[in-house]
């Protein structure tokens, strides 16, 4: 008899939910996690620290209040790394306590150490150079990812850093080069720009966030430029030369950019090197990712993988649901399928969130649609909070009036998007939003305004078509 019914390697969002779901089904469950890494990358170096840092930046800089109190408004004149870190460490500590409590009250055994496969059913847990062996009927891999570090870059975690090390800077840099305009790169670029750092973003592609709606991305770019961010699109870094004071970033075009600090945001690598996957009959691709089927099972049927380690979309929210579904399947418990329309949230300043299709995708697929727009400056709540730039965009099918996409830019975007997600998930039409009553004054009211905008446009088209 195996020591456990289910062993989960990793306690990030996917691992937590897999372990707890299996425990709720009455299984004997254990989780393997390195000492001082409870909650995984999400809690300790990724999602939670970066989003808490963002809140600290917004509060201390007073950025969101400047339309009301003037461009010079600031809660604290000299913002230090200690100011930012205090709030971050408080939240991390509380979240770790919550996770430990959840695992404990669900009787999930915590095995502290680094896990690796000894054979398809046996995990070795190494802690303080001692290895403990445990066996399991089912195993779930939820080891997450770490920042990719190109061999050509000499990281020193002070001058040339990745997104993990940026949380441990000794001081707020006066100048910063961010290499890579993906989600993580742009999030940190916007945070440091809000702090007053002169930021230069270098991206080899011709645009940033190319999976987002172009109009929304252009609005974000405008605001980042207003925070003195410089963009270098279509540029590739040839070398980064460390100096006694900072670093010099050399581009292939010949441009040279001096800065106190250079942050590389070159994607992420699956944490599979230490797993000894070959002992279980598994392998990973060149980015450390493990292939799974629709039930998150690997090529070895009793071994599952969830979260960032399996690749796209690599979001904490989707990882949680993957973990729950994998656990149910592993335990032979019926489970529904994950909804195809999962929201994407990007915590830039200002933030972006969307669900469904973009205008470019619908145009490419020749799907007719109408656009409904609501701008925060036209809402009473927008005036109250001092957000005159935010907007909500609805993409509505002109054939059956269903919502095809919802795109939000501005305050509360990552919260607001869920109203549209729910309407889409229930198969409702734009008419539901037209007829619904929203609290006043709220930003949620933007749904009704945008829905009326779209339906009014559709009415005009229908009338003109009828005259032909």
UniProtKB/TrEMBL annotation:
Molecular function terms, GO-annotated: dihydrolipoyl dehydrogenase (NADH) activity; flavin adenine dinucleotide binding; NAD(P)+ transhydrogenase (Si-specific) activity
Single GO biological process annotation from the record: 2-oxoglutarate metabolic process
Keyword field contains Cytoplasm: yes
Group of enzyme by EC: oxidoreductase
Residue ranges occupied by any Pyridine nucleotide-disulphide oxidoreductase dimerisation domain in the UniProt entry: 343-450
Superkingdom of origin: Bacteria
Annotated compartments: Cytoplasm
Role description: Conversion of NADPH, generated by peripheral catabolic pathways, to NADH, which can enter the respiratory chain for energy generation.
Protein name: Probable soluble pyridine nucleotide transhydrogenase
Name of the gene: udhA
